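Slide 14.
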Amino acid sequence: MTSPIVIGLISDTHGQVRASVHEALAGVSLILHAGDVCGDEVLDELALIAPVVAVAGNCDPPGDPRLVQRVERTIGGVTIHVSHGHELGVPTAERLLAVYDARVLVFGHTHRPLVHEAGARLVINPGAAGPRRFDIVPSVARLTIAAGEPSVELVALG
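Slide 15: predicted structure.
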């Protein structure tokens, strides 16, 4: 039996990596950033924790070579899609489920943390990890894949 795979999910850093991100994502094997990175220094800081794959958000400069438009991966037998969500206008779980086929859909853009289960599928917004906006507590998420089954935990940042 293989060990569970733990993936860090982060979004909307907007140029800031809080010290608490290091603790919240300690031990993950990969970090998936769902856009609005806003600076190479963010990617460099996150890479101290684990390898990072990041998508471009609406606040990222066009053509940044370190950012892709979307991520489609199969990890531990689970298909994962990551995009910022702004490509859908106002992203909702229902819109993401209608457009993308992956079992786990990860997005950002709204800054609001969300875990939505639709049958065997999961839609996750880890929330905004960067500067606090509105009344939303900054957060990230930990996605665990064990025996081909995904589960997620939202983690508030201090």
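Speaker note: The mean pLDDT is 96.
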